[in-house]
Automatic annotation (TrEMBL):
Catalyzes the NADPH-dependent reduction of beta-ketoacyl-ACP substrates to beta-hydroxyacyl-ACP products, the first reductive step in the elongation cycle of fatty acid biosynthesis. PANTHER family: 3-OXOACYL-(ACYL-CARRIER-PROTEIN) REDUCTASE, 3-OXOACYL-[ACYL-CARRIER-PROTEIN] REDUCTASE FABG. Its EC number is 1.1.1.100. This is 3-oxoacyl-[acyl-carrier-protein] reductase. The gene is fabG. The keyword Lipid metabolism applies. It catalyses: a (3R)-hydroxyacyl-[ACP] + NADP(+) = a 3-oxoacyl-[ACP] + NADPH + H(+).
Length: 234
């Protein structure tokens, strides 16, 4: 049976790989995007998750065209890297509002139908940075660490309704965002990773799809690192 799946920020990078993984498995996949032209093959809905009204309208369109969301992957996020002494209030609040509060908005809206159905799968995309920390990324790390507490609270709150809530924490992934780094920067990062390479987006997608599968029905409140061993022990 195909399910109604929503991947926020599913137009590129990790989000697109996740959307394709679900589509390849036969699910009906909607993605949200903020700008540009979305990829073909999905129900693409323009939505800025920092705007509650846009979130509501996106869900209404998805529900009308492919049914209530049964699997939600909250992937949309932003970075505004800066050392603490140079980080503005706006730099901090923008990242928190998108990555953490935006996730709250999309999960809360999906939860309505999941509670009625007494089933659902929620997967939040965090980061190894949220567990390990990273100089110049205090805002991003705080937002991604916040997702862990958010997910585990919801796992306790919603478990009796057969709704699982889990977190995937990717390490450094080979995407457009990391390809802009210099060769020296990329080499320095790889030296920290026990597996000595970047992840491919598809490797993150595989973990997400597993957590949304029947095989993972007894997993909730988990944080699954897909980081090549970078953050082990956290």
């Amino acid at each position: 049976m195909s399910r109604s799946v929503l991947v926020t920020g599913g137009n590129r990078g990790i989000g697109l790989a996740i959307a394709r993984a679900f589509a390849d498995a036969g699910d009906n996949v909607a993605i949200t995007y903020r700008s540009g032209e979305p990829p073909a093959g999905f129900l693409a809905v323009r939505c800025d998750i920092t705007d509650p009204e846009q979130v509501e309208q996106a869900y209404k369109e998805i529900e009308e065209k492919q049914g209530a969301v049964e699997v939600l992957v909250a992937n949309a996020g932003v970075t505004r890297d800066q050392l603490l002494m140079r980080m503005s209030e706006e730099d901090f609040s923008t990242v928190l509002d998108t990555n953490l509060t935006g996730t709250f908005r999309v999960v809360k809206r999906a939860n309505r139908a999941m509670l009625r159905a007494r089933k659902g799968r929620v997967v939040l995309i965090s980061s190894v940075v949220g567990l390990l920390g990273s100089a110049g990324q205090a805002n991003y790390a705080a937002s991604k660490a916040g997702l862990v507490g958010f997910a585990r609270s919801l796992a306790r709150e919603l478990g009796s309704r057969n709704i699982t809530v889990n977190v995937v924490a990717p390490g450094f992934v080979d995407t457009d965002m990391t390809r802009v780094l210099s060769d020296e920067q990329r080499e320095g990062i790889v030296k920290q990773v026990p597996l000595a390479r970047y992840a491919q987006p598809e490797e993150i997608a595989s973990a997400v799809r597993f957590l949304a599968s029947d095989e993972a029905a007894y997993i909730t409140g988990a944080v699954i690192p897909v980081d090549g061993g970078l953050g082990m022990g956290h």
